[in-house]
Specification:
264 residues, mainly alpha, three-stranded antiparallel sheet, two-stranded antiparallel sheet, 12 helices, 5 strands, 59% helix
Length: 264
């Protein structure tokens, strides 16, 4: 990982977006880049989604924040880290490949010894696996009670584009975001005007609907994804004055004028 990462402006931006200190950001970057290094060759992980990244670093919105600062690209086929070598280099992979070559050389030199050791290890592993399965199959507790069956995994919602989500809402006679209870509760609790929320929704749609720069993005829960944008203030459309009253920023005023022009 880069030695000068601690004073990179993008790290400070990530800290602001995620509302965590920069050292927490750097730690999560290390975790994320290490994960990408293990699962990719050139910084691209096919089939991965933004939710995977958030789970890896245990920080909601981390993938979206990386995309905002230009350190992550997300599309319907996976994720990619631009200029991956700049962040992670190839030294770790080189060391791993060298170790692998050395291991193969030792294996060829001492094939008979390795085979015997491998056989013993395999027998030991088989014994442990049989014991584990036996314990799992034993559903009776020490008191003689039958232990409850383990809960099944929560079924994942299918991921769709924003266009499909909006169309599905129209078919179901639902409003995409204006009736979303967590969003309404957040706006009421913070005093954020719904007018500003609606402006954010227009900017959000411009990004994720067809012809937007992220039109290929898929999400399982677009309402929650939008709420995350509102809570984190990703678009920087508003700010809170000392008395708690919200006002539009320069970006917010520009966005309002732009979308008013489209409406006209």
């Amino acid at each position: 990982m880069r030695a000068d990462l601690h004073d990179d402006p993008a790290v400070f931006r990530l800290s602001t977006l995620l509302k965590i200190d920069k050292f927490s950001v750097i730690g999560r970057l290390h975790t994320f880049w290490s994960w990408v290094d293990r699962h990719s060759v050139d910084g691209r992980v096919d089939g991965a989604a933004s939710t995977y990244v958030d789970e890896v670093v245990r920080q909601e919105g981390f993938a979206d924040a990386l995309a905002v600062v230009g350190w992550l690209q997300i599309d319907e086929s996976g994720i990619a880290v631009p200029k991956f070598d700049r962040h992670n280099g190839d030294s770790a992979k080189s060391r791993a490949q060298k170790s692998e070559r050395q291991a193969r050389w030792r294996a060829n030199k001492d094939a008979q010894v390795d085979a015997r050791v491998d056989g013993e290890a395999s027998t030991s592993a088989t014994t442990r696996e049989e014991k584990r399965r036996e314990e799992e199959n034993n559903t009776t507790s020490p008191d003689g009670d039958v232990a409850p069956e383990p809960k099944g995994k929560r079924e994942r919602k299918p991921r769709t584009s924003l266009k499909t989500f909006v169309e599905n809402c129209a078919k179901a006679g639902e409003k995409p975001i204006s009736e979303y209870k967590p969003l309404i509760e957040y706006a009421e609790a913070t005093g954020l005007p719904m007018e500003f929320v609606q402006l954010c929704w227009l900017v959000f749609k411009a990004e994720f609907l067809p012809e937007g720069k992220n039109e290929g993005r898929l999400q399982a829960d677009w309402r929650r994804h939008f709420l995350n944008y509102v809570e984190k203030g990703y678009y920087r459309l508003w700010y809170a004055k000392p008395d708690g009253v919200f006002e539009l920023t320069t970006q917010g005023i520009q966005a309002r004028k732009f979308h008013q022009r489209d409406a006209a």
